[in-house]
Structure formats: structure tokens, C-alpha cells
Queue: 2 jobs
Job 1
Amino acid sequence: RGTVVLAATPIGNSADASARLIALLERANIVAAEDTRRLYALANRLGVHVGGRVVANHDHNERGKADQLLDDVAAGATVLVVSDAGMPTINDPGLAIVRRAIERGLPVTCAPGPSAVLDALALSGLPTDRFCYEGFLPRRHAERMQHLRALKGERRTIVFYETLHRIAESIADLEEAFGPDRPMALCRELTKDYEQIRRGAIGEIRASVADDPPRGEMVLVIGGASGADVPETAALGVDELADLALRYADDH
Ligand code: SAM
């Protein structure tokens, strides 16, 4: 039997391509790429000859493609799954084939590497021991505000992906939902020549974005709730505690 291998690709700096990614690009029987032109452009930059058959595997066709690719895995092929940048499945295609491989009992593994989530989190200077990844915020203001208000009491560090054209509105909404004082980091162009991390309170970053609009790709990392933003947990009375203790004793 063959294997599905998810492989992370560079998020900006080609030198971040792992030796394992390069070997897989050369040797995999099939490369399932989010965008085949971008795959060949990466291979060119790395000076790698893609040895196997290349197929497109994007958001719109990946469910239909999964079984075909897995038939090849069952017949002994190594199928390499790559997205345009970073880790497949993280706001990128790849999950459909992972799920289907699990259902069919076929092997799936990962050649890990760059992903903007962890890069930004580690550089933010905010607590990394507990964090949550929220992907992209909703596009529309009303939904975005509803989503952010629901996250106001989240104690873990929160990571969002954002696009250039919505950054100013999103930070204004973050300020409205979380207040101006929460610490945050705006991490842009990670691993690239113009990498820049702006760290400060949400209100300061909002002003900095208005003064000097950031360009390129970006990740927002927001400090978790503390103080008044932490939701109150209902205090248990003596009777309720005694009841819990009895139930615990029954269960054990
Ligand atoms: N699969 C990718 C990963 O593992 O990071 C994410 C793909 S998602 C479609 C693209 C988003 O990731 C961008 O809009 C941006 O928020 C973030 N991103 C990717 N590369 C980045 C970089 N070099 N610097 C900052 N953000 C980046």
C-alpha cells in the first residue's frame, strides 16, 4: 500500500522548504496541488524536478478527487498533497483526503513545516501555552461583530488570518468588541524580506494601521481575556458542592 503525505510548503521564504518536501516532490507518484502553476513555480525556485503526475486539488474539487487519489494509494502510490503556502488543511485544501483516508483505513502522514499560525504566535510575544486559531473573520461587519463579541471572554491567545483589504475594518471591530487596551500583534510578510511585527494595544495598532496601512499577507494575534472581560463562573453553593461530591463518589 502507498501513503498520503501532506507536506507544508514555504509561506514566503523558499529556503524554508524541508529536505523531506524536496525529496517528496521528486519521488511522489502523484502530487495533488492546490494550484498546479504555483507548484511548478515553487519547484523551479527550489531547482527540483517534479517526478510524478501532477493533479489539481482545490477547494472546489477536492471531495470528488479524494476517492480517485485514494484508489491510487490503495494500489501502492505515494500521493503528496500540497497547498499554495504553509500547511495543507489550515484554511487550505487537504482535509477531504485526510478524512476519506481515515474512513478507508489508508495511511496518511505529514511532512511538517511552515505555517503562518505558529510563526505569528511565537513572534507575537503573547502567551503561547494556550491559544486558539480562528481562521478568517466573517466578511460582513454585523457577523464579524457578533463573532468577536462571542470571543470577548476567551482567555487563550487568539490567532486570526486577515486579508489586506479588510484589515482596517477588522481592527476597528476588534477595538469595538475587546476595547482599546488588549495587547495584540499584527504580523505581516512572515519569513519574507519585509517581515514586520507591530506589537501594542489594539487602539495603538488601529491608529498605526490608519497612519501607515500595512501591505502583504498578515496574521493578527490577540491577547486572551483577563480582568473584567473574563466571564463570571456561577459560584456553587454548599449543597451543590455536596451533591457533586456524592455523585463523584457514586461514579468511582
Ligand atoms: N495554509 C496556510 C498556513 O498554513 O499558514 C494558510 C493559507 S490561508 C489561505 C492564507 C493566509 O495565511 C493569509 O491571508 C495570511 O493571513 C496567512 N499567511 C500566509 N502566509 C503568510 C505570511 N508569509 N505572512 C503573514 N501571513 C501569512
Note: The two ends are 45 Å apart (CA to CA).
Job 2
Amino acid sequence: AEAHVKAVEAARVLNAFTVETPELALKAAEVADAALAKGEAKPLSGIPLGIKDLFATEGVQSAAASNILKGFKPPYESTVSGKLLADGAGMLGKLNMDEFAMGSSNETSAFGTVINPWRGKGNESLVPGGSSGGSSAAVAARLVAGATGTDTGGSIRQPAAFTGISGIKPTYGRCSRWGIVAFASSLDQAGPMARDVRDCAILLKSMCGFDPKDSTSLDLPVPDFEAALTGDMKGKRVGIPKEYTVDGIPTEIEALWKKGADMLRDAGAEIVDISLPHTKYALPTYYIIAPAEASSNLARYDGVRFGLRETPENGSLIDMYEATRSAGFGSEVQRRILIGTYVLSAGYYDAYYLKAQKVRALIQRDFMQAFERCDVILAPTAPSAAFGIGANVDDPIAMYLNDVFCVPASLAGLPAMSVPGGLSDDGLPLGLQIIGRPLDEEGVLNAGYAIE
Ligand code: GLN
């Protein structure tokens, strides 16, 4: 833990943390030593982790990287972070992220941009991906042994790919959402980000499990994910979805994808072509449903109950709401609220939101039909390697395109992970994505293990 505390201090230039809590990590290490001496070690005794700022952590600022929540210290702990701590882990601090988890580059944070420990060909700074960009940077730079992330439309997988680490989004409902700041409640899932697949399996086991405080939490036993890691793919069929060959996909991404298929074939799998016909509607569907749910979830930040309050002189209550929300929310969050309230408004609800829900069902059905022909699906995680800081900030559509391979599995609630697959022509990490059947995290992790 001490070495990690020093590493965190030495790497402040990355801006991976919003709050550092070395005292908590050191305390957990002390408790772990005492437990170890008595032969009572827990699964994660003394392991120093970082927790994404989206998770409520008792007594430690939990701001979702937003000005509107700066200074908010929850009197409670999220279920998932609480489970990790109960298993003996120590918290090194809160990890930076895109504001309210909206973004793919960690450039929308009110705490500033996070820098990817990997650098571009000309030594330029790159984004660490998003929204879990502090998590990916901190794991990649070995500041933490592992981190929590959340994934609504790719925010665990894409940053993992951009930094050369592993991360898994489990089946929707595996991890409790209680105490995690809500972005799009029907999509949000927590998951681990770590140096390798085995660490992901170990952390996931601690994070999962039924929680009566989340009505969408699944009441199912938690498998021993680590035991599933054999690397043997014999008898397994791996599907290659033809619709993921999107226009303009760089040759290096296609080559990576092929290499991943070869590795799984070498591990004993049979490679089969599959079709997910509604793939092209996934991105527009996601960018209707996610902002719609976000606009509703973010209505609670009104200056009354949490964090920031702006009170214009002689202003009314409405003036206070407006001033608080204008000052408290960054521009990407405001854009999402506007889109969300628009697609939910009377007269447009049927045309946008209801239609998107129907398309979502078709996307789910595509996957269920594909899984009659294969056990897992292999795809790239992102259409490119990490890009330069500032490269996409003025073009929200270009930024949203980054999520093209990640959002379908999110809309379908499926487990999906990213593992490092190789390097780009510029020597940057590229990720391969494995998507599994509902509740088959074991199959997903094992395929990742076979590639790693
Ligand atoms: N990049 C996507 C978005 O901006 C996904 C974010 C996420 O998964 N939290 O919505």
C-alpha cells in the first residue's frame, strides 16, 4: 500500500484522482497485516484500489466529476464499493471521470482532463478513454491494483482498450446500482478494471451479488469466476458479426480482429459468421434512451438537496434552479439534458423515445438469435486507438462514434469485456471485445483469458 501511495503522489500529472485517501489504503493494509498474522485474511485483504467518482463513498467527496456535486460527502457507502471494502480492500482515492459518466475521453470532467500514461507517436498527450478514464489511467500506470468502473454505453470497455488493460461490464443486474450516481438507469452497470483477466474475475466476484436496495438486482448465486479461467475454448463457437465491419474501419482494427479470432481458434474454438441486423440503429437508439433517462435522473440536482446552490439577488425559486443548474452542469451534461427532455416531450415521445425502445427490443432479439449459433461474440472494442487530447471535443458526433461497438451489448444488457489485443501501427494499445450470453460472465472471461 505504501508503494502505491507514493506512486499516486508521483503521478499527479495524470490527474487520475479527484480525491486521494492514502490514510484509508494504509489503514486497510494495517488491518490486513493483523488479519494475515492470525490466518484470517479476506479475499482482498490490503489490496489498494481506486473507486470511480460516480460511487458514493462514506465521508469522502463523491462528485461524479461535476461542479454541481463538489463538496458532497455522502453519509453512506455504495453497495459495490462497500462489498470491496468488506472483503478487505483499501481505497487509495476517488478516480476522475467524465462528468456524470457522459463522454468517451474524460475531457468533460469538472476536475480536468485525465492523461493517458501511453503517449502518441510524436510524444503528444492522449486521452485515456471515458467515462472511466481515471480508472483506466490509474490501472495502466500501476497506481492502483484495480479499480471500479461503470459502463452505460462502453465506459469500462473503451477506456480499458485505450490504456491496454482489461475490464468487464457484467450482465445488467449482476452488480447493485445502489449508491452509484444514476446516468441511464436501464443501462448503468458497475464492473472491475484491472491489469489482467484474472484480477477482473477476482474483483468481479466481490462486486456482484443480490442487493434488496436495487430493484433490478438479480437474486442469483455469484459464480467463482476465477475457476472459469482455463483458456480452453474447445467445443465453443465464437461468432463474428458481419455488421461490425463498419465503413471506414481502419485496417489495423480489422487485422487485430482477425488476430483475435486466430487466437481463439488456436485455443480450440470454432469461428462462425453471425449477423446482428439492427446494429446500425444501436448508436442512434442509445443516444435517445441514455439522454432521456439522464434528463430524468438529473432533475434531482436542483440546488436544494445536494452540493452547489446559486442564489441570484432578489431571485425566485425558479431563478435559483436555473442559476444552479447553469453553473453546476458542464456543456455535455446540458446537451444531454436538452436532448433527453426533447425526446420525452409531449408530441415527440412516440416518434423518438417509444421508437427507440422498440428498436432496443430488436437489437436484443438479434443477439438472442445469434447466440443460437455461437457461445460468445468477438468484436473490436473501439474503432481506433486512443486519440489526442482535444481532437474530438468540438464534434460530439465524432465523439459518439467511438461507442459504436460498445453500445449494442449495453442496450441488450449483456456481459461484455475488453482485453488488450495488440498494438496499433503507432504502437498504442488496441482492445478486443468479447460479448456473452446473459449471465455468462464465465464464458466471457475465459475467452478473454484465452486471448490475453
Ligand atoms: N460514451 C458513452 C456516453 O457518453 C458511454 C458513457 C458510459 O458508458 N458511461 O454516453
Note: The domain at 2-228 is CATH 3.90.1300.10 (Amidase signature (AS) enzymes).
